[in-house]
From TrEMBL:
PROSITE patterns noted in UniProt: ANK_REP_REGION, ANK_REPEAT
Name of the protein: Uncharacterized protein
Entry annotated with the keyword Repeat: yes
Renumbered ranges of ANK repeats: 123-143
SMART domains referenced in this protein's UniProt entry, alphabetically: ANK
Keywords tagged on the record: ANK repeat, Repeat
Organism field: Phytophthora rubi
Cited PANTHER family: ANKYRIN REPEAT CONTAINING, ANKYRIN REPEAT DOMAIN-CONTAINING PROTEIN 16
Length: 148
């Protein structure tokens, strides 16, 4: 997996530098699993990480959904990504992390970056409900203790 991520970084660099390709938010969202690629796209290609695609998904949402804590921290601390941004379904980085069982990401978003733990999706679902439905007991207990 690391080899694939490293190879993707070289491909992204080649496209941006050698081919002068316009690597945009779609590329950044697809690369959210690779910290080096996201950092390259932000710092070298000047991709605006708060821009969304048609569905409203941000790079931060994708990183949170896949448990990429290093990328999440970078996007929030360095890039000032909106921790409460919602897509067209009302999902936020926190709902995506909670539903997918990424405790470290949930804790960082809720405690360090003050994401709204009471946020509700368009279907009336909270991060607590999503974690509970998926059987993520550690997240359920954490969110219960940190509801504000």
């Amino acid at each position: 997996m690391k080899a694939a991520a490293k190879e993707f970084f070289h491909v992204a660099r080649f496209l941006a530098v050698d081919c002068k390709a316009d690597l945009n938010i779609t590329a950044a969202t697809k690369a959210a699993g690779s910290f080096d690629v996201v950092r390259f796209l932000v710092e070298e290609c000047r991709v605006d990480i708060n821009v969304t695609g048609i569905s409203g998904v941000t790079v931060l949402m994708t990183a949170a959904q896949h448990g990429r804590i290093l990328t999440v921290r970078y996007l929030v601390k360095e890039c000032k990504a909106d921790v409460n941004a919602a897509d067209k379904f009302g999902d936020t980085p926190l709902t995506k992390a909670a539903a997918n069982g990424h405790f470290d990401v949930v804790r960082a978003l809720a405690s360090e970056y003050r994401a709204d733990v009471s946020t509700v999706t368009n279907t009336g679902t909270t991060p607590l409900m999503l974690a509970s439905r998926q059987g993520h007991a550690d997240i359920v207990h954490y969110l219960k203790d940190n509801l504000r």
